[in-house]
Structures are given as structure tokens and as C-alpha cells.
Amino acid sequence: MKACVLHKKEDLRFEDIAEPQITEDHEVKVKIQAGGICGSDQHYYLEGGIGSAIVVREPIVIGHEGCGIVEEVGAKVQGIKKGDMVILRPARPCFRDDCYYCAHQMYSYCENMRHLGSAATFPHVQGLFAEKVVVHEAQCRVVQNMKPEIGAFAEPLGVAYNGVHSLGEVIGKNVLVMGAGPIGLLCAASAKVLGADRVTVVDIRQKPLEIALEMGADEICNSKDNPEQIKKWCEHKGHFDCALEATGNGFACVQTMQMVRPEGTVSQVGMFGTGHQPTDLGPFATKGLKWNAVFRFYEEFGPAVNALEKGLINPLPLLSASFPASECVEAMKAAISPDTCKVQVHF
Ligand SMILES: [Zn+2]
Ligand SMILES: [Zn+2]
Predict the structure, then answer these.
(1) Which of 139, 163, 276, 278 falls between 20 and 30 A from 269, CA-CA?
(2) CA of 158, nearest ligand number
(3) What is the 156 CA–ligand 2 centroid distance (Å)?
């Protein structure tokens, strides 16, 4: 069968690999329909890893955002059958009693985590940009009548849901979203659906800001063209009740803190690359802010899939382009371009 295999930095190939087989009773074999290219996939392609900690050391099938049709189920799988459409959750914790984090339902921190398409562990965990994958049944959520291109948004939406979840109560709140990348835009839509009174999205690029309005944002601000507005929102110790920081840029993060009122919460959804950490934590300390890091998601997955299934959130304005998997290199280049939002591959 074919898969999109990254051999090393800038060496991505659509090539034959062995078809995976079910080896455990709780496993499911899925025929992939569509997958979204994530920022981490782009880092793997451009830099051969993420920072200095995660390095691609052997060929890896990339991709962790996707959905497909069940082809075969293991002997003890319940509630999932051949022919079902499933949305895939990339995290596969060990579920063992002797794992502290699994025993305490803190699955994202499982010490034996196998995360689809991740080079964080060695051997690497192969991803889902392949004709078929084998996953644990707990990684599958059955849906009815969902377009594959919508299903492939469930994983990034799960991250956005976790971002809003970590803010605590958002009902009636005036929420800032910093950054209009795919995750920031999904954060804006999620905050709105989960009860925010007002959502404002800030970025330095106009095109994604326009998409933010389609995703339900009430207000947008181009901080490059309109720095006076940002200054205004910093006055009187801030303007917003809470914020989702989705840039992973230290400067933008400090700005976010300056715009949030005292004792508000900043949910840190963006990941800081090496050298991009915030250096001025003055507003954080002097306003008694709460700064919550968001790492992946777990229990947010079900509600996120549900929001897509019931049409509460339409992610399609984010979809810039779609390519057959055989053109994965073109797809990757399109994803890297600053002119696109989300790019998908399909099988
Ligand atoms: Zn992702
Ligand atoms: Zn575990």
C-alpha cells in the first residue's frame, strides 16, 4: 500500500510500505479518506524535527489529523464495525494500571504514549497519511454522514476546545484570540459556540482575519495596520476578560497579557519554538494573571467531533486546498506557503 513517508528534511515520498495488521484484540484497521497537514508536519518536513528535542531519525509516515472507513476490527472491539466512518484521535495512551497518568485519567501525559505521526519517541509512531492504519478502538469515534474534509478538522478542533476549556467559564466573557492560523480560527469558533459574549481576533495578516469573521468572530484587528487599537486595549490594565494565545510568538504573548484584565486567564495554545519565548513577564506578574498551558486534548475530542457532526462549527472556510496523497510534496509546499490556511490530502 502507499503512504506519505518523510525520509529526512525536505525528502517526502509517496511510496510503498507494508500494510499494517491488527495484532491486538482492541485494534481497528481504518482505510484513510482525508488528512490535514498540521504545523508539526511542516516542521518535520522543513527542519527534520521540532526544536532540538524531536528529531526525525528514521523514515516516518507523517500526519495525525484524519478520518476514514473501518475495514476490519479486532476480536474484542465493541460499537465499531466494518463500513463505519470514524474520526481518529491521534493519541494512544497505554491504559495500564501501573502508568500513573493513565490510572488517573490524565491520558495526555501517559508515559508510554504512542501519538500518530510522532517522532517524539523511537522507534517513531507512524502517522495516518497512508492508505490504511491500525489504531486502538479508543482512538475512533464513529460518525454518520460526515464529509471527510470536515472530519479531518476534528483533531485541531480538539486542541481549540481544550484551549477554551482551560479558560474555565467563558459564558458571557469578552474573549481575545491572538493569532489567526488554523488553530486560532478554530479557537475563535469554539469560544463563540461555548458561550463567549464577544470574540476578537488579532493577527498581522488580513486574509485569515477575514476568515475569522466567517468563523464567528465579532471583531478583528490587524495589529500591523492598526497598532493604536492594540495600545487602546492595553490601557486601564487591559480590555479583555481572558484570551487564547495561538501564535506561539513571545512578543504576541506579552501583548496578549497586556490586553487581558487583572486576574484574567491566558490560555497558551501556541507552542513556543526555540528562541521565541516571551521575555517580559511583567504584565503576567503585576496583574495576577493565570497562564494555562494547553497540551493536546483528550476528553475534548468527543464534544469537538460532535460540534462538527451537528454543524455547530463549519471548518470549511479554513480549507485552502486539497491534493491527492500522491501529490503530497505539492500539498506540503502549499501548506507551508503563507497564503494558505489548512491544506489536506485525500486517498
Ligand atoms: Zn495537528
Ligand atoms: Zn499510560
Answers:
(1) 139
(2) 1
(3) 22
Residues of the chain with CATH 3.90.180.10: 2-153+315-346
CA of 309 to the centre of ligand 1 (A): 19
* Centre of ligand 2 from the C-alpha of residue 114, in Å: 9
Which ligand is closest in space to the CA of residue 128? 1
Helix, strand or coil for residue 210? helix
Boundaries of CATH 3.40.50.720 in the chain? 160-293
Point out the ligand nearest to the CA of residue 113: 2
Q: What value does the mean pLDDT of the chain take?
A: 96
In a 10 Å sphere around its CB, with 0-12 CB exposed, 13-18 middle and 19+ buried, how is residue 74 labelled?
A: middle
72: Cβ contacts below 8 Å, ≥ 6 apart: 22, 28, 29, 82
Rounded to two decimals, the pTM is 0.96
**CA 252 to centroid of ligand 2, rounded, Å:** 35
| Ligand of minimum distance to the alpha carbon of 99 | 2
Write out the H or E segment, with its range, that includes residue 283. Answer: helix 282-286
CATH topology of domain 2-153+315-346: Quinone Oxidoreductase; Chain A, domain 1 (3.90.180)
pLDDT digits (tens, 9 = 90+) for 102-160: 999 999 999 999 999 999 999 999 999 999 999 999 999 999 989 999 999 999 999 99
Q: In terms of DSSP bridges, do strands 60-61 and 11-16 run parallel, antiparallel, or are they unpaired?
A: unpaired
CA of 148 to the centre of ligand 2 (A): 30
Query: Which amino acid appears at position 161 of this protein?
Result: Y
Compute the chain's Rg from CA coordinates. 20
Q: Ligand 2 centre from 340 Cα, in Å?
A: 36
Strand 342-346 with 27-36, pairing? antiparallel
In whole angstroms, what is the distance from residue 125 CA to residue 320 CA?
A: 28
- Domain range 160-293, CATH architecture: 3-Layer(aba) Sandwich (3.40)
What is the tens place of the pLDDT at every residue in 148-204? 999 999 999 999 999 999 999 999 999 999 999 999 999 999 999 999 999 999 999
pLDDT tens digits along 269-316: 998 877 888 989 999 999 999 999 999 999 999 999 999 999 999 999
Dist. CA 103 → ligand 2 center (Å): 7
